[in-house]
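ok so heres the complex, two chains, lmk if somethin looks off
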Amino acid sequence: MNYMEKGLVELHELLKSSKVTSKELIKESIERSHEVQEKCNAFDLIIDEAKEEEITDNILSGIPYGVKANYSTKGILSTGSSNTLKDYVPFFDATAITNLKKANAVMVNKTAMDEFGMGGTGTTARTGITTNPWDYKRMCAGSSSGSACAVASGVYPYALGSDSGDSIRKPAAYCGIVGYKPTYGMISRYGLFAYASSIDHCGVLTRSVEDAAIVVDNMKGIDKNDMTSWDSSNINLYKSLTLNVKGKKLCYVKEICDLSNYPNASKELKEHLENFYKVIDNLKSIGLEIEEVSVDKTLLDAEPSVYVIIACAEATSNMSNLTGINFGPRGVGDNWIDMIKDYRTKGFSPLIKRRFIIGSYVLQKENQERYLKNAMRVRRLLVDTWKNLFKDYDAVILPVGTGPAKHLDSSKDILSKNTAVLDEHLQIGNFGGFPSITIPDGFVSGLPVGLNITGNCYDDANVLNIAYAIESTMPYKNQIAKESITNG
Amino acid sequence: MGKYKAVIGLEMHFELKSNSKVFSSAKNSYSKIPNENVSAVDMAFPGILPVANIYNIKQALMASIILNCKQPEYMYFDRKNYYYPDLPKGYQITQMDSPVGVDGYIDFECEGRIVRALIHDIHLEEDAASLEHLSDTSLIDYNRAGVALLELVTEPCLSSATEAVSFLEHMRSIYRYCDISEADTKKGQFRCDVNVSIMDEDATEFGTRVEIKNVNSFGGVRDSILYEIKRQSKLKDEGKYDEVVQETRRWNEDSMTTIRMRSKEDAIDYKYFVEPNIPKYKITKEWIEEIKKEIPVLALERKKNYIEKYALSEYDATVLVKEKEISDYFEECLKLEIDAKTAANWVTVNIVGELNREEIELSAFFITPSMLKQIIDPLVKGTISSKQAKEIFIKALEEKKEPKIFITSDVAQISDVNDLTKIIVEILDNNVTQIEQYKNGKDNLFDYFVGQVMKNTKGKANPVITKEILQKELDRK
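and the predicted structre for the whole thing:
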């Protein structure tokens, strides 16, 4: 049986009625992990000794799941996919992990990622490149590459991710699954390795909106260890999934979606956008109103730079704790400066070092006004623009990326200027801390593509219900990547 | 050496007294055992987040209010980024943009004068770990890492080492009165950077400012200022004032000199930016008012009161207000209607003396103000002598018993005039010969009569009253 390809509710019923045991699920999940590891290199660690948990009334009880390598897991290697932490075994759990432990969920592996979440390709993990399960020549995108790959491959129903730009929502699109990042602070960040604190979010990758709601219901909650967390005890996402979206209003942004913005559009990009319009046209049938809105193109064009400046500045500071003094392999040198230098030179990939240089540059006293402060101002303008949209609309609906997963040989972490807005607009969700969910919306070149729904802060239940209703109009719920033609 | 004016500014750090650290839940307690009070946050393990200690924020606001500073509308923090082995996160959480107080002032006493210090700002931040350097290795103790520090920056407004030290003493007194800091230099709870420049007496522009880092005692502050004034004056005298450059120097306690660390050009860029993990926190007017109400009457005001209202001497008043506990004890005595001068005398002499001898705190002292009253009341009435009072005081302390149980009829003095007159008349009647000799000029026989009275009363006769009656009765003979 391929139990691990099923959704959470069905698995829970099977466990409850003793048609399958937690032990059997874990065995299947670990076997699948090893298969996927061989094909796609999706994991930083497979926990072969994972133990079954008692089945309770909690839907997650006894069911295996994966954890991105940047979550602190007590007694379990937690590397952030970086050589700087290649032997690091934490002595405390991230709050999200503690909450899932309380639900009797069973962690079976740590998934590979772009080192410390920096990167959108899934190619910079210390363990190497994670390939797309639909097409091994393509990337998963990142940084939650391993989590997206594993969930799409049917290793388990869900895996945890983190999202500072689009790190959950883009890999989800490239792998044909669901990726959900709730409102900033809904899930505590305590124990999530910091990349850029003001835009870091915990979240989840699943194969259905329903599963995303169930998992986040169990991860969320106010936490005394995270001052930015808030009390969401009155929100039950799973129970909010009613399919009733009559009278709900969505909008899409012309400057992002319209093909006329991209004169040299590739065939894949064209198909992707055409598919998007086809999908939203169809949504009137379930009672959704959808309108086109216009946003200042200059403002949108500034967005990718704003992200780079803010993310790199915060990352440079956040990762200054990586000195090899308290943890990580101690560097070699005659004095502490040389020791730290040696450790960081050897430990970090070139991509990260480049971002540290950028971060350090924009933080310099003489550059702060021109770069960091201006970036913060533009961030505010973008967030205000989106908040204004939320006055009239329940959510913004937009296509994710420029088409299906990109070829690995084109991955250079360099943005194509033309399509930058299309590739990077999900970052606005991080700037505002907005709840944002990606779901699959079709196929281009035989590969999955996705769309994204983003709503106002604290409106997670509404956003998820809209996504749930849209998902119901399409046949991509619970799809598994194994039937890929290209891999055949 | 020429006559120059010195201009001094201080940047002083005091560690705050609180149960937990400023951004972590680890215990804030001085410990000789290294790494005893440490949490994951203090050692900057991946994934940790700061949680601001609201009690520390309240203490900082209280200091800000006392220093007549402006408080910000919102409380938030900044990161100061730099690498050093004692700084586990690679940045210090501090306040750059919006300190807890700016533009304040405070009056303090220096050599009998009231001097006003101008406050540039006061801000809350976290302390670093402490390092111990051995011959071939260095050890890191994280007990101190994350303990709240209150940094107070004055304007260049002080004019001498004495003024600087008086100001420090004044601030220490305030912090102790308000339970903000123990301010114990022996526990490393005080550190100071000193800015010194000199200028001609009649000059209007400041001279070149030199910053001295790493001064960790009040004596060090005094000595380093004196040294630096001397060093700069000598260069100015010799016409080499251009050798005084804007730089940072280190105070070396062993050689009692300042040593060059770095010039202004090498100043570190700390790349400040807002700490994203601590949301902006609104400081309401109501909260400020609430904190104001909790500020106790401070030493300088109490001292003024004691001198003006209770006519105490400058010396007694100074001793009484040195520590809030002593002053509170004294005021408790006043509430019990013990005479101010008597109470002051007992507190400053007997109690402070006893505390010093036993090396204990007042909180551990057995005799409470109401017990002290049990001794002072009969003393004032004359039922016991001052010698007896002191003996009872010591006995009560030794046996840890209420003083009143030692004041039995057995020890009590005979002060009743009628009783004493009766005894004295009887003695005189039995000593006719001696009275005659006394009358004939043998004056020292007066003491003989006193001796007889004491013998008769087993020493319990009040000597003063005895002498009065005796004189009267002898005169009548």
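quick notes: The CA atoms of residues 307 and 313 of chain B lie 6 Å apart. thats all i got rn
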